[in-house]
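Cross-posting from the modeling subforum.

Setting up a comparison between two proteins and wanted a second pair of eyes on the formatting. Protein 1 (sequence, then structure tokens):
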Amino acid sequence: MEHYTQKFNELCLSIPDEQEIKRLLQNKFPQIAAKSKGELNIIAIYHHYNWENYSLKPALEKFGQLRHYDWFDKFNHQDKLWHKSIKTKMNLALIDQVNAWMSDSPADVIFTYLSGELIEPETLEAIRKHGVPLINLALNDKEHFVSKIKNGRAWGTRDICHYFDLCWTSTEDALIKYCVEGALPLYLPEAANPEIHKPYNVEKSIDVSFVGQCYGNRAEVIYQLQENGINIETYGLGWPRGPLSTEEMVRMYSKSKINLGFGGIAGHKDTFCLKGRDFEIPMSGGLYLTEGHSELAVAFSLGEEIITYSGIEDLVNKIQYYLNNPAMAEEVRKKGYKRALRDHTWEGRFEKIFRLIGLLS
């Protein structure tokens, strides 16, 4: 980060605001004729790992015809050396598919959720030639902007970001990284889908729950809570109970009096980023208590819509307080739910982006 901050200052760069982004994009694509919502023709390129088709796909479909390409539907990625064996074939197949779709019915915009691990610069050059806005989403650029280096290329977004017309990052301090690398960035946090993440009318039978992987300091924090007499249930990879299905997870948010969150990044001390659950839990009607950091204040009113903690003593005290004051817990829960519905849907994120480009009337 220090390297990018220094370069940013040396080059006298500035982070573009939304008005500047709008001006740059609409000057770049003067041929765009705005359409009504529901009339856009969209190509989306991403793999459904475990959440994408529940969040990105239904949100994009609100805006019109969606054609989705997922490499994993065509190629087998079970081989750990697939990067060497079929990456070139994957990229050539993508170019062929985009060319065929654009020839059949030209898209108004191409949205991707890609990294340098998957996509080659030459592939992006070929896709750019179609002359429609190319947008990429990147999550957790604190950790993955560069990521691994293979054959001199970053597996993150560093070496591919300048090929996109707009780089959507969920990491606020990555904006200067994109600017230094010659890309146009927009900071927008993750979001949730209210058709999936919704409250369930079930009894709140669990004091505290955490749904997520077991790594970093999480097991130690859970142990410390149990040592302090807190009844907490944990679910996900690495925990004895294992992972939950999407519906079971969302139901768990409603069954829990308090839903615990962690904001840290494994292997990085005092480094935090926004997580999907920061939006999914409030939108599911759960009371959310998570590790405090500055980016949360961009999305929620802290202490009113979600609760934050710093250190195990503060965490124990706040859990005990809200378990003993259910009326206060209910007030925070309701405010968090309303805020999430109003400001933090994936549909709303895409609407902002499409309006900045000038795609929507």
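Protein 2 (same layout):
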Amino acid sequence: MAFVSLGFVLLYLAFKDQDLSEVFNQLKSANYFWAIPVFVVSLFSHIIRTIRWQMLMKPLGYRPGIKNSLYALMCGYLVNYAVPRLGEVTRCALLNKTNNVPFKPLFGTVVTERAIDILCLLILIFIVTLMEFSTISGYCYEIIFLPLYSHFLSTLPGITTILILGLLSSIMLFAVFLIFKNRIKTSPVFKRIIQFLQQIWIGIASVAKVEKKWLFITITITIWVTYLLTTYLWFFAFEETKGLTLGAGLFFMVMGSIGKSLPIQGGGMGAYHYLITQAVLLYGVGEVYGNALSIVVHGFQTAFYLVLGGISFFIISLKKQTI
């Protein structure tokens, strides 16, 4: 609930001082031809992501078809728009339905994928920070930290109370575990939890058994290149942003990825719009163009997942389980 509130707060901050009629005019004048190459790149991105997922499944002894894997992946992204992080569970459950791939180790491969993505994002943040340190440090402090700090300062006593209660609860649970550890370790529930975690670990460990590691790395890099292109290509849809460099596209992609990674419904709605709207100011672009750009990029991504995710759900619902 806190993150949902944060999303609406950031959405409000992104548009509160803007002339919405001017934003609407920019949206009307945008060149939507660029939706075609963005769609092609986005589709290619998800296909190679599916191939990378299959490479993680292969060491486990499972090779579901690329179509079913892609359908499950797209359904997962769609579900994430409604309930963040539930999509990872959904795509594993759907592939279990269509191809009888065991859920637990399959979920481990998804955990591995997410860990790799986070590592890649951290590397890109480091690279962008080195490229634009003075500008970005001021941006992060003035545009991100101060507004969030001032908004949530009033809730500090409540946060402190929650942290204290959480610490005390952790201490009590640890004490209970020490006192009853022998009974806990022999209980059926504890054994099931351990077995569940072991099965997930099998999936996580699959990354070490990938046969073509250089291909796996190449695909991972290509995935992030496509993410960059799906942001950069939209620059050409507006007169004011078509002169921005590929480096600016990299910065926008990183900020957008941070916004979308927050567990906020609607693919980071609000967080994405706020970060992109403010990021354009670093490159001398009017804020109204940032508003329009954030709406177009986020809106296209939302439509992409709604349409292809919906189609994928429909196709999977008609399928029978295969081995």
